[in-house]
Amino acid sequence: MKNHFLPFLLALAIITACGGKSTGPDPYHQDAPAAQPHPEGAEVKLTPEQIKAIGLVTGTMEKRGLTTSLRANGRLVLPPDKNAEVSVLFGGLVRNVPVRDGQHVDKGQVLAELESLEFLQLQQDYLESSANGTALAADLKRQQDLHEDRINATKTLERAQADLSMAQAKRSAAAAKLRLFGVDPATLTAGNLRSGFAVRAPIAGHVQRITITTGQYAEPNKPLFSIVDNSGLHIDLNVFEQDVARVKVGQQVVFGHAGEPVGRHTATVFAVNKAFESDQQAVLVHARLDDNGEDLLAGMYVDALITTDSTSAWSLPDEPVVSNGDEHYIFVERTPNAFVQTAVRTGATELGYTEVKPLTAVPPDARIVVKGAYYLLSELTKGSGEHD
After folding, report:
1. String of b and e for 171-206 (b: at least 16 CB within 10 Å)?
2. CA dihedral 90, 91, 95, 97 (to 10 degrees)
3. Are 276 and 297 in contact, with CB atoms under 8 Å apart?
4. How many Å apart are CA 241 and CA 200, to the nearest integer?
5. The whole model's pTM is what?
6. 3-state class (DSSP) for residue 296
7. What tens digit of pLDDT does each residue of 3-35 get?
8. C-alpha angle 346/347/351, rounded to 5°?
9. What's the pLDDT band for 40 if we cut at 50, 70, 90?
10. In this structure, are residues 40 and 342 in contact, taking their beta carbons and an 8 Å threshold?
């Protein structure tokens, strides 16, 4: 029996081996459909305990006016009419200094009192020229009368006119000098001559420096006081050649000095120089302060942003926008405790806010992770390389 059954099995094996391929589906080796990528990014699911532990907070995008800015450095300066060096025309002995360093003074306020023989001589010269002019005016009148009667020569009349003109010129010059010392020539008489005169403040401001003391001889044309008026402060900013075309009069500036955030103070561009500075390929841009805080002083160095363009755009605080290499993302809440990574392009950035342009549709009222986005990115990129 075994001998008769063995040929049958062999034939059956040969037929099976030589048969054609089966056209029916093979349930064990049939290819599965290719996985379709989801139009959104990866999703992170957290438990309520995890959300509480990381302090995750959601918010919404908001429409903000954002600006494109140009960063520049510079310093606070004073214009010439807000900075005064006080000196005297005549030397004299200092009799009194009633002001102190740092004190605020008004325009015309007495800074010091000096005594000078030259000042006394100036008053005498004025009174003498005034008296001489009166006498010469009377003599000219007599010469005119005699000339009308043909008694004197024309030359004599002309000499009298010349003498009176010179006396009047001397009188006017002496009067002008007296006014420089605050003396009204009309009130000056032989009985009220004085040897002392007052040094007065030419501008209102704060006394920055005093170089004289009581009893000292104050030399002429040497600074005795320095006065600054910080209400005239403005910024001189260095803008380099490639950026000069972006700066225009009227643009807004935000700035801060050392130890302050850049947005602490504001200013407005009022002038742009038309030539480069001698020591660098940069142009000075002048901006007038919108506020003159007591903490701002001439000579301070500042860091500033000049607003060169503005736009209204959907924006988020800087923290929710996270980066992985050159790509930027936000996390959108799809369902409670589930957050979808969404790629975005970033635009203008200003004072802690960044313009975001999602690459997939995000409703304006969508809940965005505003605190904890870095934690979510870390969960997605574990073991896949560095992330910012």
Report:
1. beebbebbeebebebeebeeeeeebebbbbbebbbe
2. 80
3. no
4. 45
5. 0.57
6. coil
7. 444 443 333 343 333 344 333 433 323 332 222
8. 105
9. low
10. yes
